[in-house]
Amino acid sequence: MEGRPLDEAELIERAREGDFGAYEVLVKTHSSIAQRTAYVITGDHADADDAAQQGFIKAYYALGRFRAGYPFRPWLLKIVANEARNRRRSSGRHARLALRVAEDRRREGAAPSPESAVLSHEAAATLVEALNELREEDRLVVTYRYLLELNEAETAAALGWPKGTVKSRLSRALKKLQAQLGAPDE
Questions:
Q1: Is pTM beyond 0.70 here?
Q2: CA 179: distance to chain centroid?
């Protein structure tokens, strides 16, 4: 691929035409979030790796059905999430969420003090425990919106819900999470 970097729409179009290099760029761009999405659902690194990989394969073969002009990331994450759910169901596991929030949220710069690192780890563990207590739908909407940093429209597309449903479920899930964490109501 020459000169200027291609935008996502151009990469998708080239991938549709059989350009594996273009699809490889899409995979590299979205692999981290696909992996994290799969892990949120499966709770197992190996299953998440397999689900993300299978999701990318299925997405490649489904590129002909992708609607131009729509965002690629939510469409891809929906495929990955479906694959992760299928893996979790077929394996018979009821793995709980075990996000490594602190690791995914590291900021560049100075290393934290040992005290700060311990407090950060404890806060992350408390959050993970509270998220694990939520129903799957509540856990997913909070995770997609805040931990994976999707906007409302992307969250709606990834979960296959109307935008209004995302807003209402997110509101209810955050209230439940707030109650579990013992945070005062605002």
A1: no
A2: 24
